[in-house]
Amino acid sequence: MWNEFKKFAFKGNVLDLAVGVIIGAAFGKIVSSLVDDIIMPIVGVLSFGEDFSTLTYKTIKYGAFVQSIVDFFITAFAIFIFIRIISRYRKKEEAKPAAPTPDVKEELLKEIRDLLKEQKQI
């Protein structure tokens, strides 16, 4: 059972997923800070000091919902840009020519050549 778990846990897809989740969580904090600390104060200045999170209609706090929508779109756009950059990098890596692999026949011919050279020296 332990060996099966190790095979599962260290499979490439599982590790990629784990790294993606961890990086995504950290990136989410960066985006949240960007929105909360930089973009929303600018929006507040442009809207004459209005804080969206305090907007209400009777008991409905629609300002928090508006803030969530803004957060979502900024997060989605940031992830879109990040994925585009990664995709371009991967395409460049895939476009690099791989080292030519010698043909099996060529390898055998080289071995035969080397054996013949050894026989002539003896």
UniProtKB/TrEMBL annotation:
Which SUPFAM superfamilies would you find in this protein's record? Gated mechanosensitive channel (SSF81330)
Residue ranges of the TM segments? 12-31, 64-86
Functionally, this protein is described as follows: Channel that opens in response to stretch forces in the membrane lipid bilayer. May participate in the regulation of osmotic pressure changes within the cell.
Q: Any idea what this protein is called?
A: Large-conductance mechanosensitive channel
**Species, as recorded:** Mesobacillus jeotgali
Tell me the gene name. mscL
Q: Which UniProt keywords apply?
A: Cell membrane, Ion channel, Ion transport, Membrane, Transmembrane, Transmembrane helix, Transport
PROSITE patterns reported for this sequence: MSCL (PS01327)
Q: What is its main location?
A: membrane
**Family recorded in the similarity comment:** Belongs to the MscL family.
What topology in the membrane does the UniProt record assign? Multi-pass membrane protein
Q: Where in the cell is it found?
A: Cell membrane
Check the record and name the InterPro entries matching this protein.
Mechanosensitive_channel_CS, MS_channel, MSC/AndL, MscL_channel
Q: How does it assemble?
A: Homopentamer.
